[in-house]
Specification:
There is one protein chain. The chain is an alpha/beta fold. The protein folds into 4 domains: 16-174, GAF domain (Beta-Lactamase, 2-Layer Sandwich), CATH 3.30.450; 194-288, no CATH class; 298-467, P-loop containing nucleotide triphosphate hydrolases (Rossmann fold); 471-602, no CATH class. The chain contains 25 helices and 20 strands. Strands 2-1-5-4-3 form a 5-stranded antiparallel β-sheet, with helices on both faces. The protein has a 5-stranded parallel β-sheet with strand order 13-14-17-12-18. A 4-stranded antiparallel β-sheet has the order 8-7-6-9, with helices on both faces. It is globular and about 75 Å long.
Length: 603
């Protein structure tokens, strides 16, 4: 092994950073290298879609942490398991410099690409890592202080890292505590959202502390078999990814007792919930969790009118399912729900948007390729989505936009259950549940010659129609459950009933996606412990603001002006087509006064 260069920071021989420097040299990097690996826009989009834990489980946390960056130089960076930056946010003054230092989305910070750095080294080690100033292998990063904490999925797999980067002259002294808590919150939220009917959640936490006390150990069991856990539980119980879906809880706790792994419970006064009826460790049934309504998790989809039980039986039988519905109505959400409930859940849920990928990439993404199959192909090859989904569920979104040439190959795979990667001669057997989704009328597509009729019959063995959100029943309950899913209870933020009623009356042409986006905005603008009233609602897009019960006006501007002096609040809103600011002007009052009057009328 070569000696380290003379300007290596003074670290002990056993230091993890010294080992990382040696690995950096082994990768062929030099201190003065100026190569800056950046992923293309398409690759960034695919990685964001594949590693959607950031959008699903980290968004509430990002909104919570953002205020800390207003007065401190630094950025919060989230990456995928390959070290690609997927999101970065923080101090506006430092963000511009951060982009110059390659901390913007798309930049790759794996250890083999940039040498010793917090993101790449934390991924290499699978543990927290700090790298400051000249401890970075590449000289051009010496101006940075970086600290990174890995984030793990509920199946024990490395999902990426959350990182704080700041000027080396202004390091974040509390980075360890902040990132540890942040990673735990993300994992805890992720674990709790995986629980399905029939599963139980084991929680081990400090004596006398509430359920959301920091650093609770969480495990999910179904019929006694391990289905999920956060990284703290994986670490202290010695769990590996291959244990999920296989290990029984009796074996897990027995081995932990024998090996002394549960000593931390005695030393730090931890407690477990006990299900007295079964005498088993620690169970919280999903519909009994504090702060949650008594309905089962399927209640979130129930207002759509979809027969979930019948649809799940179809999926378990291996019948191809096609989900139809307007854009944004929750087709992928339904697919993920069916996957978590089905017999296919021990495999992967692999989703691909056929409309989002360029035509020349769809074939390699679905079928994979052999090493050197084409210019730019990875030297290691790529298995492809079909093989990745083997034993699990393949979700093909916007199937109606798949090119005709690919439809032929897809049909062959579905018939033969075998995949031949690009540049290969051997076929690989595959077995997965196929769920497709589209907002198009596929029968019309067939008539226009844009979709193969034989493929239509193969993917539409059973069809589910998700109606648009405006036709759903119990939208108020649905809104409250979405609000809870976004993490509002963690921050103590609630919606008053008048807000829920008002939002339920809006038509939401963008369906669940539009509603969800507006709820995220509302949550980001709310303070911890706040009760959100009508006065707190931001201006929504006019199309979303107009209540369903108020038809668009047909009056001319002159007619409107003549009637303005004698109209009431609801009439003003109707004339203004739901634009609250405009309605307030017509009444000669402020928007907040208008909201207060409406709230009194609803009371």
């Amino acid at each position: 092994m070569r000696n380290l260069p003379h300007d290596t920071p003074l670290l002990s021989p056993a230091s993890i950073l010294s080992d990382s420097w040696r690995r950096s040299q082994h990768y062929g990097l030099a201190r003065d290298d100026d190569h800056r690996p950046v992923a293309g826009h398409e690759q960034l989009g695919e990685s964001r879609h594949r590693y959607d834990w950031i959008a699903r489980y980290a968004s509430p946390l990002l909104a919570q942490l953002t205020p800390q960056f207003r007065t401190r130089a630094g950025v919060l960076v989230l990456s995928d398991p390959g070290g690609m930056v997927l999101e970065s946010t923080g101090n506006s003054g430092f963000l511009q410099k951060a982009e110059q230092l390659a901390l913007a989305p798309g930049n790759v910070w794996s250890e083999d690409a940039r040498g010793t750095n917090a993101i790449g080294t934390a991924l290499a080690l699978g543990r927290y890592c700090e790298v400051s100033g000249k401890e970075h292998f590449l000289s051009r990063h010496a101006a940075l202080f970086c600290a990174a904490m890995p984030v793990y999925s509920p199946r024990g797999e490395l999902a990426g890292v959350i990182d704080i980067s700041s000027p080396a002259s202004l390091p974040w002294q509390d980075a360890t505590q902040l990132l540890s808590r942040a990673a735990w919150q993300i994992e805890q939220h992720w674990v709790q959202k995986q629980i399905t009917a029939g599963q139980v959640l084991v929680q081990l936490r400090p004596q006398g502390q509430p359920e959301l006390a920091p650093f609770t150990h969480s495990l999910i069991f179904e019929d006694g078999i391990l289905q999920g856990a956060n990284s703290l539980a994986c670490r202290d119980f010695g769990l590996q990814p291959q244990d999920f879906g296989q290990r029984h809880q009796d074996s897990i706790f027995a081995c932990a007792m024998e090996n002394g792994a549960l000593a931390w419970m005695r030393d730090t006064a931890y407690q477990m919930h006990i299900d007295r009826a079964q005498k088993r460790p620690g169970v919280i049934v999903p519909d009994q969790r504090p702060g949650k309504p008594a309905e089962e998790p399927t209640a979130l989809l129930a207002p759509s009118g979809v027969n979930l039980e019948k649809t799940l039986r179809v999926v378990n039988a291996g019948i191809a399912l096609c989900i139809n519905g307007e854009t944004g109505c929750g087709k992928e959400y339904l697919g993920q729900h069916l996957y978590r409930q089905s017999k296919w859940r021990s495999g992967n849920f692999v989703a691909i948007n056929c409309a989002a990928l360029p035509e020349h990439l769809i074939e390699s993404e679905l079928f994979g390729y052999m090493p050197g199959a084409f210019t730019g192909a990875s030297s290691r090859g790529y298995a492809g989505k079909f093989r990745e989904a083997n034993g699990g569920m393949l979700f093909l979104d916007e199937i109606g936009d798949m090119p005709l040439a690919l439809q032929t190959r897809l049909l062959r795979v579905l018939q033969e259950k075998r995949v031949v990667p690009l540049g290969g001669n051997s076929a690989f057997p595959v077995d997965f549940s196929l769920v497709c989704a589209t907002h198009r009328n596929l029968v019309e597509q067939v008539e226009r010659g844009l979709f193969r009729e034989d493929l239509l019959y193969r993917i539409q063995e059973f069809t589910v129609e998700i109606p648009p959100l405006r036709q759903w029943q119990n939208k108020g309950l649905f809104i409250e459950q979405l609000w809870s899913e976004l993490g509002a209870p963690v921050r103590g933020i609630r919606l008053c009933q008048s807000v829920v009623s008002y939002l339920a009356d809006c038509p939401w042409p963008g369906n669940v996606r539009q509603l969800l986006s507006q709820l995220k905005v509302l949550l980001a603008l709310s303070d911890n412990g706040q009760t959100v009233t009508l006065c707190d609602l931001p201006d929504l897009p006019r199309s979303a603001h107009a209540p369903l019960s108020v038809p668009p006006t047909t009056r001319t501007p002159n007619e409107t002006a003549c009637h303005a002096p004698c109209i009431n609040e609801l009439e003003a809103i109707r004339i203004s087509q739901g634009n609250m600011s405009e309605a307030a002007k017509r009444l000669g009052i402020s928007r907040s006064t208008l909201y207060r009057r409406l709230e009194k009328q609803r009371a």
